[in-house]
Specification:
single chain; mainly alpha; Growth Hormone, Chain: A; MFS transporter; sugar transport; symporter activity
Length: 498
C-alpha cells in the first residue's frame, strides 16, 4: 500500500472531472470547519460552556495566532521537505495530507460541553495546528498544471465543496436542533463527529488522486542550508514588493475579515435584535447552499471576465444585503422571517462570490512571484497568506468579544439590552466598511487570463535561456503592471546564474 502511494505522488496524469472533484473535496475541511466555527463556536462557548464573550473570543484568537505561527512553519517545511527521506518517497505536500487525515477527529472534541477554559483552549489550538495541512494542499494546482483553465477547474471544484460544506455547517445543526432540541450541547457534538469523519475521508481521497512536482523539476531547487529566522522574514517580506501580491493581500484580508464580522454576530442578530430562534438562524444560514450553484457559475465567469469585475459585482451585492438586514431591524416589519430569507438569499449569493474569487486568484499568484524571484515559492506564499489571515482574524475576534462585553452583552441571557443590540449592529457596520475597502483595492487589480498567459510564457522563455533584451513590448508592459517592478529587475534567477 505504501509503495503504491509513493508511486502515485509524482505520477502526472490528465486533469479530468474526477481529478478536480478529488482535489476539491478537501476544501470541505477548509471551508466546512471555518463555517462551523464562524457560525456556532462563540454561541456554543457562551451558551453551553459558561464562558464570557471575551473568554470565547480569546480562545478563538489564540487558536488563530497558533495557526498563523504553525502555518509559517509548515509552508517553509513543506517547500523543503522534498529533500528528506520521507519527502522524497511520499511527496513534500502529500506526506502532510496523509498524516493529518486521522487527526481530523480532534474537531469533534471541540464540541464537548461543560469543560473548563483550558480544555477548550488546548483542543481548539490543537485543531488549528492540524488544519494548517491546508497550506501544502493549496499549492497543488500550481504543481499539477500551469494552464489557466485547468487551474480554474481545480479551484472551482475546491470552492464547490467549500460551498457545500458551508451549507451543511448550518443545515445539519438546524436539523439536529429539531430532533434533539437546544437544551443540551449534544447536537453540536454529533455535528462535530459527522464533519470530522468527512474531513478525514476527503483528505485521503485528495492525497490518492492528486500529484506534485518532483524536487528536481522545480525552477530553483531549495538549498540544503537551513534558513535562519532573518532570512525567513526577508523571504516573506519580499512578497510585498510584488504589486499583485500586495493587492491580493488587501482584498483578501479586508473582504474576508469584513464578512467574518457579519457572520460572527449574525446568530446574535437573529436571536436578540430580531427575536428569532436558534433554529431560524440555522435555517437562514443554511441558505449558503446557493453557493454550490454560484461557485459553478463563478468558475465559468472567471474564465470569461476579469477577476476585477467579479470582485466589484460581489462587493456591491453583499453590501446591499447587509443594508437590507439593518432596514429589516430598523423598520420592524411584520414578516421579519420572510424578509430575512430574501435578504439572506442575496447575502449568501454574494458571500459565495466574495469567498470564491480570491482563492481562484491565489492559484495564479505564484507565477507572478516567480517572474520576479525566479523561484517556485507556492508554499511560502500560502504560509504568508495564512499568517496574515489568522493574525487579522485573531485580532478582530478578540476585539469583537471585548466590544460586545463592554457594551453590556450578557452571556446566556435570553434578552439583551439596547446597548448590546446596538453593539451587534455596529459590528456588522464595521464589517461592511472593510468590504468597501476591499472594493476600492479591487478596482486596480489587473490580473486576467490573457495577462497570466503572457506571464507563464515569459517564465518558460527565460527558463529556456531566453534573454531579457528580447522581450516583446506587450509582455514587458504586463510584467511591469502586475509586479510593479521594472522588467530589468525581474527574474532574479537569471542574475544569480550570470
Amino acid at each position: 500500500m505504501f509503495n503504491k502511494i509513493a508511486k502515485r505522488v509524482y505520477q502526472k496524469r490528465e486533469i479530468t472531472l474526477l481529478t478536480a472533484v478529488s482535489f476539491g473535496c478537501t476544501d470541505f475541511m477548509g471551508g466546512g470547519a471555518q463555517a462551523v466555527i464562524s457560525a456556532w463556536l462563540l454561541y456554543f462557548y457562551v451558551r453551553y460552556c459558561n464562558l464570557s464573550a471575551t473568554q470565547a473570543a480569546l480562545i478563538v484568537s489564540c487558536g488563530q495566532i497558533v495557526s498563523a505561527v504553525s502555518g509559517v512553519l509548515i509552508g517553509g517545511i513543506s517547500d523543503n521537505f522534498g529533500q528528506t527521506k520521507w519527502g522524497k518517497k511520499y511527496g513534500r505536500r502529500h506526506f502532510f495530507i496523509y498524516l493529518s487525515a486521522p487527526l481530523m477527529f480532534t474537531f469533534a472534541l471541540m464540541w464537548l460541553a461543560e469543560q473548563n477554559f483550558w480544555y477548550y483552549l488546548l483542543i481548539y489550538c490543537s485543531f488549528c495546528v492540524i488544519s494548517t495541512v491546508m497550506i501544502p494542499y493549496q499549492t497543488l494546482p500550481t504543481e499539477m498544471t500551469n494552464q489557466y483553465d485547468e487551474r480554474t477547474k481545480l479551484s472551482t471544484a475546491r470552492m464547490f465543496f467549500s460551498s457545500i460544506a458551508g451549507s451543511l455547517a448550518t443545515f445539519i445543526p438546524g436539523q439536529l436542533f429539531k430532533i434533539l432540541g437546544t437544551r443540551t450541547a449534544l447536537p453540536f457534538f454529533i455535528n462535530g463527529l459527522i464533519f470530522s469523519t468527512i474531513f478525514c475521508l476527503a483528505l485521503l481521497i485528495t492525497a490518492w488522486n492528486t500529484w506534485e512536482l518532483p524536487v528536481s523539476s522545480l525552477t530553483m531547487p531549495v538549498s540544503d542550508k537551513r534558513k535562519n529566522i532573518l532570512m525567513l522574514i526577508k523571504d516573506y517580506l519580499s512578497f510585498f514588493k510584488v504589486k499583485s501580491c500586495r493587492q491580493h493581500f488587501g482584498i483578501y484580508l479586508a473582504s474576508f475579515t469584513g464578512r467574518d464580522m457579519v457572520n460572527m454576530v449574525f446568530t446574535f442578530f437573529c436571536l436578540y435584535c430580531l427575536h428569532l430562534t436558534a433554529t431560524d438562524a440555522a435555517n437562514l444560514m443554511a441558505l449558503s447552499i446557493v453557493g454550490i450553484v454560484v461557485t459553478l457559475v463563478g468558475g465559468y465567469l472567471f474564465t470569461r471576465i476579469s477577476p476585477k469585475r467579479l470582485y466589484e459585482l460581489a462587493y456591491m451585492v453583499i453590501l446591499l444585503a447587509i443594508l437590507a438586514f439593518y432596514l429589516i431591524y430598523q423598520f420592524k416589519f411584520k414578516q421579519v422571517l420572510l424578509l430575512m430569507y430574501l435578504a439572506m438569499l442575496v447575502y449568501q449569493i454574494a458571500s459565495s462570490l466574495v469567498g470564491f474569487v480570491p482563492w481562484q486568484v491565489y492559484a495564479f499568484l505564484p507565477d507572478i512571484d516567480e517572474i520576479v524571484s525566479g523561484e517556485n515559492r507556492a508554499g511560502s506564499l500560502a504560509s504568508l497568506i495564512n499568517l496574515l489571515r489568522n493574525s487579522t482574524s485573531a485580532l478582530v475576534t478578540v476585539l469583537v468579544g471585548i466590544f460586545l462585553d463592554q457594551n453590556g452583552f450578557v452571556k446566556g441571557a435570553n434578552v439583551q439590552s439596547l446597548s448590546a443590540k446596538n453593539a451587534i449592529l455596529e459590528v456588522m457596520l464595521m464589517g461592511a466598511l472593510l468590504i468597501i475597502l476591499a472594493w476600492l483595492i479591487a478596482t486596480r487589480f489587473n490580473l486576467n487570463k490573457t495577462s497570466h498567459q503572457l506571464i507563464t510564457r515569459e517564465i518558460e522563455r527565460l527558463k529556456n535561456g531566453g534573454q531579457k533584451e528580447d522581450v516583446d513590448p506587450q509582455t514587458k508592459a504586463v510584467v511591469e503592471d502586475l509586479t510593479g517592478i521594472k522588467y530589468e529587475n525581474t527574474y532574479r534567477k537569471q542574475k544569480n546564474e550570470e
